[in-house]
Automatic annotation (TrEMBL):
Gene Ontology molecular-function annotations: ATP binding; glutaminase activity; NAD+ synthase (glutamine-hydrolyzing) activity; NAD+ synthase activity; nitrilase activity
Taxonomic placement: Bacteria, Bacillati, Actinomycetota, Actinomycetes, Micrococcales
Biased composition, class Low complexity, residue ranges: 557-578
Gene name in the database record: nadE
Name of the protein described by the UniProt record: Glutamine-dependent NAD(+) synthetase
One Pfam entry name: NAD_synthase
Length: 578
């Protein structure tokens, strides 16, 4: 006879803040109450819920670990006092353990899952596999656990793991003989494009290994340069998606584990997002989290009339409201009338506080004291604009948004201490081709909803230009963006060398110029503001190259050597833009 005991499971994908121990604990209490009201027997929260994630070197401070442990104990009592003592609550936090080999050594931090029940800590599990790639450096910070953990809830057996433990072989295999009813995994898995199906495919394989459904709860929200998309789900051992939560919003996913011997039924499933919408929502989530968690109330950016500042303004308006966006037009003697008109139109569409501050008098005053021409004169204009934005930030408390994109950052097409100033860069991990795609998606989304598109059509269709000299366009200095982004994708994202690029059929002169520009711009990228990671390889934590290096991709032919000399032999190339 089948066991007639079912189990209602709740997955609470919530937005936590690193270091806000009291605030995070309050959020757990709030969402645990919601789970209880929904009839849940167990509710699971994301990885390191109490502390926020990632905590980086805060884990190494004993004072922080003590504070987290106090917050955990207070949370257990608060749950019981609220009448939730019978609810099994699984949360993540930072723990401690001593070395088996050196028991007298100081305790080391662990990435821990904790089971709370009846006002006390019922069980603890320390994460076994500590990722040490991409954005992760947990192996340096934490000490690994090793013992598998199962939790009994209402007569059902749950296996408990943390994030990377299912990405590596070992921990799941240790639970495969435990006759599990459910494998519960708490996660802090950052968003990147295309990662959703990778998670579900992996989870399906692990569910098959334990012959039981797998419940995967993930955090949501922005934390510095990382974005967490939620997207929690339950998947069956046959690979069937049984339930799923929407991305980029806090959500409580409730699913019923059926009695043993009974086939699991599908619960609610969220509609997958279009790829462009997914990226756009990630950018909005990242900016909103950074603004809110760092105490800003508003943002300021330069509105040039171009596509990059237009998209950033739309993202900012969606993230925090157009009334909290300050857009500043800073025309120079070379600024076109259509650019000024497009900037004013943009501000009206998104509801921004629009201001005009001409830079000509400031530039004239500087040039009256110091003779400049060429790139130096062009960069002066950009730096005056940076001074204006930072002055408004200091005077009025706005967060300055840099509007450059990943393509420009890759080749150094920005002015250091000029258009590169800012506290946050929403498009840092978005190449120019994708900027246009996202702008078109956002406008089409508005039209579908019967709203006014936020981005002026002219900003999308006109040739991009920095307007730092008469008649300037980006393509005076760079290959066409669609071609440039293909070369950059191969060289930066996939780490292909010159020979591989030539084998793809790219023109040697273009390859040599692009590679030279990318290699010379590393020092600029180190000083650029942080921005949300949305691709598999973002500048910053994902790609760590030395600034001082004499390595250059080998050039095989005399013709290619000549091309390289042409690409690197002039200091007046506007792409350099120091």
């Amino acid at each position: 006879m089948p066991d007639q005991t079912g189990l209602r499971v709740a997955l609470a994908q919530i937005d936590t803040c690193v270091g806000d121990l009291a605030g995070n604990a309050d959020a757990v209490l709030t969402w645990a109450r919601k789970a209880a009201e929904a009839g849940a027997d167990v509710v699971a929260f994301p990885e390191m819920t109490v502390t926020g994630y990632p905590i980086e070197d805060l884990a190494l401070r004993a004072s922080f670990r003590r504070g987290a442990e106090r917050a955990l104990a207070d949370l257990a009592r608060a749950l019981d006092d609220a009448g939730l003592g019978d609810l099994t609550v699984v949360v993540g936090t930072v723990g401690e353990r001593t070395s088996r080999e050196h028991a007298d050594a100081p305790a080391r931090p662990t990435n821990q899952a904790v089971v709370l029940r009846g006002g006390t800590v019922h069980q603890r599990y320390d994460k076994h596999h500590l990722p040490n790639y991409g954005v992760f450096d947990e192996f340096r910070i934490f000490t690994p656990g090793g013992e598998p953990t199962t939790v009994d809830v209402a007569g059902r057996r749950l296996g408990l793991l943390i994030c990377e433990d299912i990405w590596q072989d070992g921990p799941v295999a240790e639970l495969s003989d435990d006759d599990l009813d459910l494998l519960l995994v708490i996660n802090g898995s950052p968003f990147e494009e295309g990662k959703g199906h990778i998670r579900t495919d992996l989870a399906a394989r692990r569910a098959a290994e334990v012959a039981a459904p797998l419940a995967y709860v993930n955090m949501v929200g922005g934390q510095d340069d990382l974005v967490f998309d939620g997207g929690s789900f339950v998947i069956g051992p046959d690979g069937t998606l049984l339930a799923s939560a929407p991305q980029f919003v806090e959500h409580l996913l409730v699913w019923d584990l059926p009695p043993r011997g009974t086939a699991p039924e599908r619960g609610t499933t969220a509609q997958p997002l279009d790829p462009d919408e997914e990226i756009y929502r990630a950018l909005v989530t990242g900016l909103a989290g950074y603004v809110r968690k760092n105490g800003f109330r508003s943002v300021v950016l330069g509105m040039s009339g171009g596509i990059d500042s237009a998209l950033v303004a739309a993202i900012a308006a969606d993230a925090i409201g157009g009334d909290k966006v300050v857009g500043v037009s800073m025309p120079s003697r070379w600024s076109s009338d259509h650019s000024k008109d497009d900037a004013a139109d943009l501000a009206k569409r998104v509801g921004a506080d629009y201001r005009v501050q001409a830079i000509k008098p400031m530039v004239d005053a500087f040039e009256g004291e110091m003779a400049l021409d060429g790139v130096a004169a062009e960069n002066l204009q950009a730096r005056v604009r940076g001074v204006i934005l930072m002055a408004l930030s200091n005077a009025e408390g706005h967060l300055v948004l840099a509007t450059g994109n990943k393509t420009e950052l890759a080749v150094g097409y920005s002015t250091i201490y000029g258009d590169a100033v800012g506290g946050y860069a929403p498009l840092k991990d978005v190449d120019k081709s994708r900027v246009w795609a996202l702008a078109r998606w956002r406008n089409n989304h508005a039209l579908d909803a019967g709203d006014l598109p936020p981005i002026p059509e002219n900003s999308i269709t006109k040739p991009p230009s920095a307007e730092l000299r008469p008649g300037q366009t980006d393509q005076d200095s760079l290959p066409p963006y669609d071609l440039l982004d293909q070369v950059l994708d191969a060289y930066v994202e996939h780490a292909e060398g010159r020979a591989e690029l030539l084998a793809r059929g790219f023109d040697p002169e273009i390859v040599d110029k692009v590679l030279s520009l990318v290699d010379r711009a590393e020092w600029k990228r180190r000083q650029y503001p942080l921005g949300p990671k949305v691709t598999a390889l973002a500048f910053g934590r994902d790609r760590r190259l030395p600034i001082t290096t004499r390595w250059r991709e080998p050039v095989d032919t005399a013709a290619s050597a000549e091309a390289t000399a042409r690409a690197t032999g002039t200091t007046t190339d506007t792409v350099e833009q120091h």
